[in-house]
C-alpha cells in the first residue's frame, strides 16, 4: 500500500511541477523583466501528493481525481481573501449574465462568513427586498438544506432558479430570539441601474443601484432628461449610491466622467504585476468598450458645475466607493451618509479554457488623492448618525481573511467629519435594543421616497436649512 501511495505521490509531483514550470516559462515569455524563476516548493508539493494519495487509497468512498483537484484549486483561492474564487462553467456563465442586469433569482448580494451565507444587501425591487430581508442577516438554511459547510457558489446556485418557483429561507437576525422563515418566489431580476426624477424645480435626484454594462449610457440619458425638464437654473443634484454593491469598473469611470473635468484622474490601482498598475482618467478610452460612440459627449455643461451631494452608506461598495472617492477628492461633490463598505480590491477574471476561469484579486484601488479604499471605505464629509442600521451593517473589515488596507492602519472614521443629527453616545445601545424589538416586521426604506430622512437632510443642506435636532430619548436616566 505504501508503495502505491509513494508512486502516486511521485507521479502527482511530476504533473504539478510540469504545470508550474510551463506556467513559469509562459510568464517569462510575456514578461521580459523577470530576473529569476521562484524555486518550486518541493516539500509542500510532496505533502500535497501524500494527502492526495491517502484520500485515493483510504477515504471511505472512491473519489474522482477531477473532484479532488478542483477542490484543491477552490481551497487555494478561497484561502486567499473573500473575493478570489474558482468559476466552473455554470458560475462563469452566471457572472457574465449578472453584469448584463437580468437573471433569475431572489435579489440578494451575499458573502460567506464563518461558513454561513451573510447578506451584504438586498437589491431594490426584488423578492428579497420586498420580503424584508436585511443587511447582516445570516442565511442558515435553504429549503431543507443546511448552509453550514456549503460553498458560497453552491448556496447561490440553490437561491437562483427558474422564475415563479419558490424557496424557503431560514434566517438568523441580530436581536431576534428565534430564526425567521421567509417563503420567497423567484423572479426575473431586472436591475434598473439608473433611476432619476426631479425632486422639485431646480433639484434633481439620480440613483444608481448597480454598475452594469449600460450604466454610463443610462446615466447620460437621465442627465439629458432632467436638465431638459428643468426650466430654470439647476440648483442642486443628488447622486444616491446607497446600497449600491458596485459592478463594472468602466461604469464607475463613466459615472465619474459625467461630472468631472475631462482627463481628471478617477482612480488608480497598485498590484504586483505591470498589468495591475493602472491610472484611469475621465475620458472615453477608459469607459467605452471598443469603438462605441461616446455617450457622454454633448452632455449639458452644467452637469460638471451644478452643486452636488453624493449619498452613501455601509452598503455602498467597490465601484460606488470609486465614484464617491473621485468626486470627493476633486471637491466636486459633498459626500453625505455613513462610512462605506470598504471593498477596494480589484478582481481580474482569468479564463482557464473549458469555459472555466478564476476570479483573482490582483490589485488595490486608490482614490485620486492616494487613499486606499480597501477595508476602510470612504468617510463622508457629513456623517449621518441618525442611521440606526449602520452599526449592524457588514463591512469588508468584518470578513475573514480580508485584504489589508495596504497603506494606512484600518479605521472606521477620521476626525473632523461634520455630523448631522448626532445623538448622545450613551443612548446608542438603548436605541439599538429598542429598535431590534420592532425590526422583524419593519418595511425596507425606499430610497428617494418621502420617508427618506437623509435625502431630506441633503435638500436642507442645499437650501441652507439647519438639520433637525435629534429626538429626545423616551427613557429617563436612572
Automatic annotation (TrEMBL):
Species annotation: Nitrosomonas ureae
A GO term for molecular function: serine-type peptidase activity
Q: Which domain of life is it from?
A: Bacteria
Xref: SUPFAM superfamilies: ClpP/crotonase, PDZ domain-like
Q: What InterPro entries would the database entry show?
A: ClpP/crotonase-like_dom_sf, CtpA/B_N, PDZ, PDZ_sf, Peptidase_S41A, Tail-specific_protease
Q: Where is the composition biased (Basic and acidic residues)?
A: 391-411, 425-440
Q: Which PROSITE patterns match?
A: PDZ
One GO BP on record is: signal transduction
Q: Which PANTHER family match?
A: CARBOXY-TERMINAL PROCESSING PROTEASE CTPA, TAIL-SPECIFIC PROTEASE
One Pfam family in the UniProt entry: Peptidase_S41
Q: Which family does it belong to?
A: Belongs to the peptidase S41A family.
Keyword terms of this UniProt record: Hydrolase, Protease, Serine protease
**Sorted alphabetically, which CDD domains does this protein's record hold?**
cpPDZ_CPP-like, Peptidase_S41_CPP
Outline the segment boundaries, as ranges, of region: Disordered: 376-478
Name of the protein: Carboxyl-terminal processing protease
Q: What SMART domains has UniProt attached to this entry?
A: PDZ, TSPc
Ranges for the PDZ domain? 92-160
* One CC-aspect GO term: outer membrane-bounded periplasmic space
